[in-house]
């Protein structure tokens, strides 16, 4: 990435549409049939290792992968959301448990009503994969979900499950609503859930089963059994057992299904200090390495940083190493709600989960639960999706395309980030989050960021104040030789914007210079209450999030937002 400041506006540029593979990138087209400019482009990308089999699952070889769309349409009513930048931003949560999970207690309608009341537009019910759930729960929860869709038409309620990934941690898997949603989820769970596989399987066999499970979901979409399926790895660094090569292999198995991981885990209330709370670790990230852990991870990876997972929060770390390969891999946040802080209910008496696949409906007990580690959906974390409409398909398309930013404690009200040719302020030409802008080498580009500052109290009763926004930029280096790589050398914070305004709107811009090599960028913001240099040093990240200490990790006193990336590539 260069730093020139040529402000001419006559450079051809494009945002690559879904499924449109330019001839220069299509290796089935012989070089002799390419135009001189396309031939030059292909030589550049081949020389950089950005084309060919090793880059087959990247936005570089297949730019349209970041925009891949599901099939079919299920439209709701007008719905809510916030209009900004040409999209309808719909807040949601893809990781929620109910009485159909062995360690939870709420009805579907309980979670949905609270989520909607706390400002969510969509959510996913993800009860734990298990023998009982596969046999009973996946069927029995569906009527409750269908009833909730009818009772709350202004909330998009998906059915999914929390998959025990063979050889790894957990993941959200969910599908587009339709007549086959239960059948596909049940077939998937019975065939691929790690808890149901033979205990004699080797690690290699289980890793292969995880890949097969993701491919199975993609096949169900191709065969029109369902109109879309998505996978997000949950709390990926919590126990250190999601190795870098497994994450890469999930992504490469089917980039239209396996699209990301939790940038921040749920269970954020677990960090509320005693005596008002549990006094534990945010996200229940209080583990140490085990025999099953990936040996290369540092001890710091087993804790959250400003409430976020180490894989996301470390500038130049594992997430950035994926983005530097050109892999479309997105982050989310959610509640992981099981039992909620300050709730006054308990499981219904006489429950027999093993026999019935569920607990009896919760009952009021008059006791305030200060030891629970979870918040209600929407109470603390939001995954904000840029959708084309209020519909199930539009939410899944937005997630798949990476048009997503996340925040804790409603740190900001709304934002729109775009990369454009320098000086071109037409919103329709800007490339949004998750997008790929392609311009001629030597073209000057700039980031334009518009933020609506928060002006209403969050659910803790105060109006958050944004203090700083960091721009993180990394060079695209192409496929890694070692799939267990979890750092990248050329990603760092290139600019920090101090925010002095307390209300209204803030517009920021930054010249990205003249394009001389492919790069990506992402953004984060903070209330500035807790910072420290990042794990890779002050030259990489001078004011990153601070490591969370169990017993002293008030989630409301340490708020951040993160965006997904935008790539800028040579045409």
From TrEMBL:
SUPFAM superfamilies: PHP domain-like (SSF89550). It comes from the Bacteria. GO terms for molecular function: 5'-3' DNA exonuclease activity; 5'-3' RNA exonuclease activity. PROSITE patterns: TAT. Residues 92-167 form the Polymerase/histidinol phosphatase N-terminal domain. InterPro entries: PHP_domain, Pol/His_phosphatase_N, Pol/histidinol_Pase-like, TAT_signal. This is Histidinol phosphatase. It comes from Actinoplanes utahensis. The lineage of its organism: Bacteria, Bacillati, Actinomycetota, Actinomycetes, Micromonosporales.
């Amino acid at each position: 990435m260069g730093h020139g400041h040529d402000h001419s506006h006559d450079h051809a540029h494009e945002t690559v549409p879904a499924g449109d593979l330019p001839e220069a990138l299509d290796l089935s087209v012989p070089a002799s049939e390419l135009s001189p400019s396309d031939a030059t482009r292909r030589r550049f990308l081949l020389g950089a290792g950005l084309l060919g089999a090793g880059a087959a699952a990247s936005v570089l070889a297949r730019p349209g992968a970041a925009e891949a769309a599901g099939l079919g349409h299920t439209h709701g009513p007008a719905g809510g959301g916030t209009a900004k930048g040409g999209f309808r931003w719909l807040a949601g949560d893809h990781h929620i448990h109910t009485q159909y999970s062995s360690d939870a207690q709420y009805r579907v309608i309980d979670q949905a009503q609270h989520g909607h009341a706390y400002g969510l537009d969509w959510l996913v019910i993800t009860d734990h994969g298990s023998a009982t759930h596969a046999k009973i729960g996946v069927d029995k929860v569906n009527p409750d979900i269908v009833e909730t869709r009818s009772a709350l038409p202004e909330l998009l309620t998906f059915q999914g499950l929390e998959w025990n990934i063979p050889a790894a941690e957990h993941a959200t898997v969910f599908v587009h609503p339709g007549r086959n949603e239960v059948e596909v989820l049940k077939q998937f769970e019975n065939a691929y859930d790690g808890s149901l596989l033979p205990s004699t399987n080797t690690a290699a066999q289980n890793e292969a089963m995880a890949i097969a499970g993701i491919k199975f979901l993609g096949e169900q979409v191709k065969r029109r059994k369902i109109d879309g399926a998505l996978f997000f790895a949950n709390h990926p660094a919590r126990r250190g057992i999601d190795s870098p090569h497994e994450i890469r292999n999930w992504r490469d198995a089917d980039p239209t299904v396996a699209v990301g991981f939790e940038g921040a885990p749920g269970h954020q209330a677990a960090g509320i200090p005693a005596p008002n709370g549990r006094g534990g670790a945010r996200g229940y990230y209080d583990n140490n390495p085990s025999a099953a852990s990936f040996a290369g991870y540092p001890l710091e990876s087993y804790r959250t940083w400003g409430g976020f997972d180490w894989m996301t929060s470390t500038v130049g770390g594992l997430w950035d190493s994926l983005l530097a390969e050109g892999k479309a891999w997105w982050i989310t946040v959610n509640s992981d709600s099981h039992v909620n802080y300050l709730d006054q209910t308990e499981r219904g008496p006489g429950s027999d989960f093993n026999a019935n696949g569920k607990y009896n409906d919760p009952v009021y007990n008059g006791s305030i639960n200060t030891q629970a580690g979870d918040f209600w959906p929407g109470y603390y974390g939001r995954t904000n999706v840029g959708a084309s409409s209020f519909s199930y398909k539009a939410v899944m398309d937005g997630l798949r395309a990476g048009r997503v930013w996340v925040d804790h404690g409603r740190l900001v009200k709304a934002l729109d980030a775009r990369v454009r040719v320098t000086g071109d302020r037409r919103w329709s030409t800007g490339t949004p989050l998750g997008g790929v802008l392609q311009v001629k080498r030597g073209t000057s580009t700039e980031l334009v960021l518009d933020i609506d500052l928060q002006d209403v109290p969050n659910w803790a009763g105060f109006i958050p104040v944004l203090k700083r926004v960091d721009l993180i930029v990394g060079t695209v280096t192409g496929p890694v030789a070692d799939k267990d790589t979890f750092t990248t050398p050329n990603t760092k914070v290139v600019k920090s914007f101090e925010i002095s305004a307390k209300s209204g709107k803030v517009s920021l811009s930054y010249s990205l210079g003249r394009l001389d090599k492919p790069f990506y960028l992402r953004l984060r913001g903070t209330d500035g209450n807790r910072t420290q240099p990042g794990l890779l040093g002050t030259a990489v990240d001078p004011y990153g999030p601070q490591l969370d200490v169990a017993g002293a990790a008030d989630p409301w006193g340490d708020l951040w937002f993160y965006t997904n990336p935008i790539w800028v590539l040579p045409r």
